Amino acid sequence: MGIIDLLKKAFMEGYATSSITIGTVLICIGCTMLIAVYIYFIYKIVNRNSFYNKGFNISLVIIAVITAAIILTIQSNIVVSLGMVGALSIVRFRTAIKDPMDLAFLFWSISAGIICGAGFAGIAVVASLFVTLLIILFSASFKGSNTLVLVVNTDSHEREDAIMKAVKEFCSYSRTRARNVSKSGLNIAIEVKTNKPSQLIDKLIGMDFVSDASLVENDSEIF
Question: Quick one: pLDDT at residue 223?
Answer without folding.
Answer: 46
